[in-house]
Recover the amino acids of this structure.
């Protein structure tokens, strides 16, 4: 029973390894490309958040000085 199960596992593993058509260099290229896309998206959202924060800060500073002049 154990040998049959062991042989089955070995056969399945070799079959899945044989089906793997991607080589290491292809996997690395794909990984780098996906990471590059993730970094671009992160930077895009970070820059947008930074721009919004800058506008909010400027508005607060302006409102502070307008309150000083009205009092």
């Amino acid at each position: 029973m154990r040998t049959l199960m062991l042989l089955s596992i070995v056969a399945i593993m070799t079959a899945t390894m044989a089906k793997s058509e991607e080589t290491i260099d292809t996997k690395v290229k794909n990984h780098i490309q996906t990471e590059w896309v993730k970094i671009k998206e992160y930077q895009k959202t970070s820059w947008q958040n930074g721009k919004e924060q800058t506008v909010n800060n400027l508005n607060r500073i302006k409102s502070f000085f307008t309150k000083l002049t009205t009092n």
Residues 20 and 44 are 35 Å apart (CA to CA).
